[in-house]
UniProtKB/TrEMBL annotation:
Required for ecdysteroidogenesis in the prothoracic gland which is necessary for larval to pupal transition. Belongs to the adrenodoxin/putidaredoxin family. The lineage of its organism: Eukaryota, Metazoa, Ecdysozoa, Arthropoda, Hexapoda. Pfam families: Fer2 (PF00111). This is 2Fe-2S ferredoxin-type domain-containing protein. GO terms for molecular function: 2 iron, 2 sulfur cluster binding; electron transfer activity; metal ion binding. Its main location: mitochondrion. It comes from Microctonus hyperodae.
Length: 184
């Protein structure tokens, strides 16, 4: 027996609540087979200078009485500024922040906002080749937070915004020597 359901989530983006809402959308992937996003630019504008204050996510969930296949594992290596290497394992669909938290990796101050895109403490530096193959480009919100990060490079990204794929298995990223919490 297979049960299929479709859920449409319309979330209001408003001031500080926007970031928590985006974290909720990202977490839908843990409970669903597929999440389809409608970016702001496909929605009608509220006025000439502002995008609408809403985001739509459509999630399709599939349930079955048969056991689901275990999610594919991915490996990542964090290289600290002193050369120490920390290896960790996560699952396809996890953010890099999820992997740090789930593996209880001690990176001082890392992920202070818990993935709500209100700080830059999960700033990581990617090799150019890897940066070029990341599935999603940084959003304006992520770029705003990165502008406040210490040791910013052209290949800097926030770990909370990078969702692991099978293509990123074996990823090696550099952790900056100092973090900046944009909330301070």
């Amino acid at each position: 027996m297979i049960v299929m359901s479709v859920m449409i989530v319309v979330l209001k983006i408003n001031d500080g609540k926007a970031y928590a809402t985006m974290a909720l959308i990202r977490n839908l992937q843990r409970f669903t087979k597929e999440v389809i996003y409608m970016p702001f630019n496909v929605l009608p504008k509220m006025n000439s200078h502002r995008q609408p204050l809403c985001q739509i996510a459509i999630a399709q969930s599939v349930s079955t009485t048969q056991p689901l296949h275990e999610q594919q594992k991915v490996k990542i290596t964090f290289v600290k500024s002193n050369g120490d290497r920390i290896e960790a394992t996560g699952k396809v669909g996890d953010s890099i922040l999820d992997i740090v938290v789930n593996n209880e990796i001690d990176l001082d101050g890392y992920g202070a906002c818990e993935g709500t895109l209100t700080c830059s403490t999960c700033h990581l530096i990617f090799p150019q080749k890897v940066y070029d193959m990341l599935p999603d480009k940084p959003t304006d919100e992520e770029l705003d937070m990165l502008d406040l990060a210490y040791d910013l490079t052209d290949t800097s990204r926030l770990g909370c915004q990078i969702i692991m794929t099978k293509d990123l298995d074996g990823l090696e990223v550099r952790v900056p020597s100092t973090i900046t919490d944009a909330r301070d």
